[in-house]
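Hey, sorry to bother you again with one of my protein questions. I've been puzzling over a protein and I'd love to understand its fold better. Take your time with it, there's no hurry, and the full record follows here:
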Amino acid sequence: MSRVASPSAAAAPALASRAAASGAAPPVVELQQVKRVYYKPDGTVLVEALKGVSVAIRKGEYVAIMGSSGSGKSTMMNVLGCLDRPTSGKYLLDGQDCAVMNDEDLSRYRGRKIGFVFQAFNLIPELNIRENVEVPLFYQGVTPSERHRRAVESLSLVGLGDRLGHRPSELSGGQQQRTAIARALVTQPAVLMADEPTGNLDSTTGKAVLELFENLHRQGMTIIMVTHDPEIGRRAHRVIRLRDGLVESDVYNAHAIEPEA
């Protein structure tokens, strides 16, 4: 059911170059005939959220996963983020089969390989933003001096190097989301996953956050976003649309090759 759209003649050379570059890179995430079925207490099927999805996303891609409510996009993100396990099929994250890991190993691997950005900022109000960004590193056993260094580096990357001592309540919504992005980046993940990252922001602030994601992508970060926002779909370089638990389309976005000034 999936299809890859043909680019316009004007965009074809740039798309061909991008496709060749991404094709040379190994998949960062790969779903192979993944199904996710939820059951009722009596063992009968409640819903088949994913019905055999196969997708490979390579290093350096910027992908939007889209679809209407009930399409399976949130379930797909949960599987990609190792927050849920497939009922059947295989999921490879940075070359490792997640299905063979126990819960403890999977949690540890997820913490190293995936950075999450959610619609809610999920910052700890009692901590300043440097301390918030350090939290994932604390759980990974990183030394205090290294935690501090990497947190400052991540916050500087998102333009908050002059706000290190501020608490979340002292920041705007856009600054709080940039702090959340810095927290996601501080573990140096293989992939950055975002679920409706502009959902709690006004349009101007949301645009600035999307421009930050674009800058990160230009620096080589692999980005996967779940969204219903057509603006994100317009900016992403590849759009995967789900419908009824299946991939309806998988297209490269010619309009994202040369973003508007």
